Amino acid sequence: QVQLVESGGGLVQVGGSLTLSCAASENILSFNVMGWYRQAPGKQREWVASIRGVDSRSYADSVQGRFTISRDNAKNTLYLQMNTLKLEDTGVYYCYVYWFRSYWGQGTQVTVSS
């Protein structure tokens, strides 16, 4: 079993920045895919960004150029640096990994206000 614990969410104004963290209980180098999803109120969960393999990064069009996904292998931690936040970035952000199956964190709330 892989345990994932997110942190770093909070309330921020439009145009502000936040960095989310996801601490894993296992060596993250073992994982095929690591990434982030988010779910806005009343909407389906949507993919935000991911890292595949050694360092292949992908982003949803809605966050391209504003969000950066990264990881610290020594700390077994995944990050999501979010800049120039918009109202539509509001939601619960979930960390996930794929290692023989999918594992999800409990989520961290991000609220962008005007």
What labels describe this entry?
11 strands; 114 residues; four-stranded antiparallel beta sheet
Structure description:
By secondary structure, this protein is mainly β. It contains no helices and 11 strands. It has strands spanning 4-7, 10-13, 18-24, 33-39, 46-52, 56-59, 67-72, 77-82, 91-98, 102-104, 108-113. The strands form 2 sheets. Strands 2, 4, 5, 6, 9, 10 and 11 form a 7-stranded mixed β-sheet that branches. The protein has a 4-stranded antiparallel β-sheet with strand order 1-3-8-7, with no helix packed on it. It starts with a strand and ends with a strand.
Task: Give a quick rundown of the structure.
This protein is mostly beta strands and 114 residues long. The chain has strands at 4-7, 10-13, 18-24, 33-39, 46-52, 56-59, 67-72, 77-82, 91-98, 102-104, 108-113. Strands 2, 4, 5, 6, 9, 10 and 11 form a 7-stranded mixed sheet that branches.
Tell me the total number of β-strands. Answer: 11
Global shape: globular
- Determine the oligomeric state from the structure: single chain
Q: Estimate the helix proportion, in percent.
A: under 10%
Mean pLDDT: 96
- Given the helix and strand composition, which structural class is it? mainly beta
Order of helices and strands: EEEEEEEEEEE
Strand content: over 45%
Uncertain stretches of 5 or more adjacent residues: none
Radius of gyration: 13 Å
- The count of helical stretches stands at 0
Distance between the termini: 40 Å
Main sheet: strands, sense, barrel:
7 strands, mixed
